């Protein structure tokens, strides 16, 4: 069993995960904890190269199964090289997306079904976040926040694809009610932050309380 804490943030594109990850870092660092932040796909030199391939708008012909396998490969490298060692060292690891994203985007969005979960069991060696925060916002509202000129290959997909991804996320959340906490993302970033702080207090407050003076 790892000594650290593993938290993932999920949500439609434009949900505001990056902003909230910064707040979560501050929460744990104020309690004297060492925090490592990573993202998917990416987080290692190899995984970042795979990210470039996945999100490059020039690669629109990419087959759905190819997409699934590249995501899993990037994740396998990230888990082996970064996440698991950091957890073994007792660090707080916060990841911008994890396996739930692949299940939502490739499993539901690409209609690849349960094979996505099976492939990723191997990629992660069964590693699962201690807590996942799903920032719930309508996918059209989220994409509007990004701006058309900044959309990557997946973000450029049609609205019906993003709707399928969103509905997939909702099913994932319903199936994992003890691990995934759903919060309303259609509010100010401060309101979302306060909601997340309450969740962190509930999940980890007792565990971290003795370290708050460090």
UniProtKB/TrEMBL annotation:
Reaction catalysis annotation: dTMP + ATP = dTDP + ADP
EC number: 2.7.4.9
Family matches, as InterPro entries: P-loop_NTPase, Thymidylate_kin-like_dom, Thymidylate_kin_CS, Thymidylate_kinase
One term of GO molecular function: ATP binding
One annotated GO biological process: dTTP biosynthetic process
Domain Thymidylate kinase-like: 9-196
Key words, A-Z: ATP-binding, Kinase, Nucleotide biosynthesis, Nucleotide-binding, Transferase
One family name in Pfam for this protein: Thymidylate_kin
Residues holding ATP: 11-18
A single Gene Ontology CC term: cytosol
SUPFAM superfamilies assigned: P-loop containing nucleoside triphosphate hydrolases
Origin: domain of life: Bacteria
Function, in words: Phosphorylation of dTMP to form dTDP in both de novo and salvage pathways of dTTP synthesis.
Family according to the record: Belongs to the thymidylate kinase family.
Protein name: Thymidylate kinase
Organism: Baileyella intestinalis
Recorded name of the encoding gene: tmk
